[in-house]
Amino acid sequence: LVDDLVDGLGEQQVVALAQRVNAALDHAPTRPHPYTPHSGRLGRVAHHLWRVVDRFWDTAEGRVIPHKEKPPHPRRGSKMTRYVLGAPSFEGKTDTPDGDSTTV
After folding, report:
1. Residue 2 pLDDT class (50, 70, 90 cuts)
2. Phi and psi for 101 in degrees, rounded to 5?
3. Torsion angle, alpha carbons of 18, 19, 21, 27, to 10
4. I want to staple 58 with a disulfide (CB 3.0 to 4.6 A). Which of 46, 53, 63, 75 is the partner?
5. Is the CA virtual torsion 58, 62, 68, 70 positive or negative?
6. Which class for 103: exposed (0-12), middle (13-18), buried (19 or more C-beta within 10 A)?
7. How many degrees, rounded to 5, is the angle at CA 14 between CA 10 and CA 15?
8. 17 with 9: CB under 8 angstroms?
9. Sign of torsion, CA 39 42 44 48?
10. pTM higher than 0.70 for the full model?
11. Residues 22-54: pLDDT tens digits?
């Protein structure tokens, strides 16, 4: 079925479809909930609540669900961060909270 779909679509359409599927997976519950509403406002609220609950249980049970990595905080090695975390700066080098040393 996937091969037929790829053959029938252009390369740009396949890439766009793959991006839409990945975006939908990021915002979807990770387990089936067949008896909850699936449409309308109540369905949107139920969908969001189950997504939050499913993510909690995935973490609690140690289920490995691939998620998009969050970009690093742009000011991770700032003076305020170093002060709050007690990570000193030595001669042009900054120790970041994750243990890496970066040159300033």
Report:
1. confident
2. -105, 130
3. 160
4. 63
5. positive
6. exposed
7. 120
8. yes
9. negative
10. no
11. 888 777 787 888 888 888 999 889 988 998 898
CB 84 within 8 A of CB 75: no
Q: How many helices (H) and strands (E) does the chain have?
A: 4, 3
- Answer yes or no: are the C-beta atoms of 100 and 77 closer than 8 Å: no
Maximal C-alpha separation, the chain: 61
SS3 of the chain: helix, strand, coil, percent, to 5: 50, 10, 40
pLDDT in tens, 49-70: 998 898 888 888 888 777 667 7
